[in-house]
Amino acid sequence: MPPLQPEYTAAMTPEVRAWADSAWPKVLANCAGLRHYREDLSAVPAGSRLVERYFEDRDAALIVAIRVAEQPAYARLREFAAQGHRCEFAIEYPAGSAVQIGQRWCQQLCLDRPIDSAGQDLRLGLR
């Protein structure tokens, strides 16, 4: 199965689209669950967009939205309580050096392990 690819909004400029196409593989490389559970994940149509002043009201972010299947083939996704949920991955723009993930089930999906985030966003450095 090919890697998961975001679906971008029509309003995204070619420059931002090219940047996004180079930044997304870094997220996939750092989020094992996005690779491992690929068959249970889909891009949200027009769910990827650029948001200004996302990170501490300073930097913009590219938001990539992914949906987890209602009835995932992998039991682990049910353990994470991720089934049917929409996950948003906010990639720092234009630096592309980090991704921020909000909900705990989305964080667990990314890391492919249970975590106790107690309502805190997860911020991963991208290499």
Concise account of the structure shown:
The chain is α+β, with helices and mostly antiparallel strands and 127 residues long. The chain has helices at residues 14-30, 32-36, 75-79, 104-111, and strands at residues 41-43, 49-55, 59-68, 86-93, 98-101, 122-125. Strands 1, 2, 3, 4, 5 and 6 form a 6-stranded antiparallel sheet that branches.
Overall number of domains: 1
Q: What is the subunit organization of this protein? A: single chain
The arrangement of helices and strands along the chain is: HHEEEHEEHE
Query: What's the overall average pLDDT, rounded?
Result: 89
Question: Per the principal axes of the C-alpha atoms, what is the gross shape?
Answer: globular
Largest sheet: 6 strands, antiparallel
Instruction: Count the beta strands.
Output: 6
The count of helical stretches stands at 4
- The portion of residues forming beta strands comes to 25-35%
Layout of strands and helices, then pairs:
Blueprint: H1 14-30, H2 32-36, E1 41-43, E2 49-55, E3 59-68, H3 75-79, E4 86-93, E5 98-101, H4 104-111, E6 122-125
Antiparallel strand pairs: 1-3, 2-3, 3-4, 4-5, 5-6
Description:
By secondary structure, the chain is an alpha+beta fold. It has one domain. Helix content is 28%, strand content 28%. Strands 1, 2, 3, 4, 5 and 6 form a six-stranded antiparallel sheet that branches. A hairpin with a 4-residue loop joins strand 4 and strand 5. The chain is globular. It starts with 13 loop residues before the first helix and ends with a strand.
